[in-house]
Design a protein that fits this description.
The protein is of the alpha/beta class and about 325 residues long. It has one domain: Rossmann fold (3-Layer(aba) Sandwich), CATH 3.40.50.720. Helices cover about 35% and strands about 15% of the residues. This is Short chain dehydrogenase reductase.
């Protein structure tokens, strides 16, 4: 795996850039919004609740905040709250229509699953009721819609746009107590991989961040305290938010992998960070997609790797 050492100084000036970010009222989204704004971007936070200006993006239970960078305030005019139910297509579409130009889109909003998903609930006739699908609607369907709107917007613009998706470490290491949540986050990794060769056509990039335990409204400090007390790693929202912003602006020395009819020389070409995912765990950042792709023959098998690559080549319609 590829360990990263990220610093606020790694983020270039974003003066004049427009960022649209979902789920930015607190936690990771708020941290990313403040970093974007600190670097000069105009940030539009889409959420169903107003921004929580009291949320401590640096907090880790039982640990002093230490030397924390001074970031843009939530109310400085560069972070704008737009009330939006992201599961509502019309609301989401109308907000995108209000912008002439968008440089960076971050699909960050997410919810945990209903703990009773696999508990039988009967209707008035004694028949099994369909479970609620809020986790699927928020964590996956709304991200598909946001991705559709973002890529459509990027097609109208000059190259250089970025889409970043907040997935979860449960996509790589699922939790038995959160099977639906883990499944939705795994689907987001699949989306990033599937769009990796397509985003470039529009001059855009698509990347992801996969947080492990991170202080947020989903995991408040009081619930995280036992994890920290046991010596397990926990990240601050700032730590993960920095990975989100970095993913939107980073450069790479080579591509993650070739696809379909790609020229073999393309793998070694430097360019914008694309199709990569940073796992955030404790105080560490790890890019995992390039190593996973490089080891494909070992975990997928030589025959399977070769033949599925051939299928991809035969069905690669890019540029045709």
């Amino acid at each position: 795996m590829t360990s990263l050492q990220l610093k606020l100084e790694d983020i270039p000036s974003l003066e004049g850039k427009v960022v649209v970010l979902t789920g930015g009222a607190s936690g990771i989204g708020l941290a990313a919004s403040r970093i974007f704004a600190h670097k000069g971007a105009q940030v539009h936070v889409l959420d169903i609740v107003p921004i929580d200006e009291t949320f401590d993006i640096y907090e880790i239970p039982g640990q002093a905040n230490g030397d924390c960078p001074e970031l843009a305030p939530c109310h400085g005019g560069t972070i704008n709250f737009r009330k939006c139910d992201i599961t509502n297509w019309s609301s989401l579409r109308d907000i995108f229509l209000s912008f002439e130009h968008i440089d960076i889109v971050v699909a960050n909003a997410g919810v945990s699953q209903d703990p009773d998903y696999f508990t039988d609930i009967l209707d008035e006739n004694g028949l099994l009721k369909e479970p609620a699908h809020r986790a699927v609607d928020v964590n996956f369907r709304s991200v598909l819609n946001l991705t559709k709107l973002a890529l459509r917007q990027f097609q109208k613009q000059k190259p250089g746009s970025s889409l970043v998706i907040t997935a979860s470490s449960t996509a790589y290491s699922p939790e038995q107590s959160l099977p639906i949540y883990s499944a939705t986050k795994s689907a987001l990794i699949g989306l990033i991989r599937g769009l990796r060769p397509m985003a470039e056509i529009n001059g855009a990039t698509i990347n992801g961040v996969a947080p492990a335990a991170t202080i947020s409204k989903l995991l408040p400090a009081n619930l995280a305290a036992p994890i920290k007390a046991a010596g397990a790693p926990i990240s601050s929202s700032y730590h993960t938010g920095l990975a989100v912003v970095y993913s939107a602006v980073a450069q790479q020395a080579r591509s993650v992998e070739l696809y379909g009819r790609d020229d073999p020389a393309k793998i070694a070409l430097p360019g914008r960070w694309n199709g990569r995912v940073i796992v955030t765990l404790g105080d560490r950042w790890t890019e995992v997609e390039e190593p996973i792709a490089s080891l494909r023959q070992e975990w997928f098998g030589e025959y399977n790797t070769e033949q599925t690559a051939l299928q991809q080549k035969l069905t690669d319609l890019r540029g045709m």
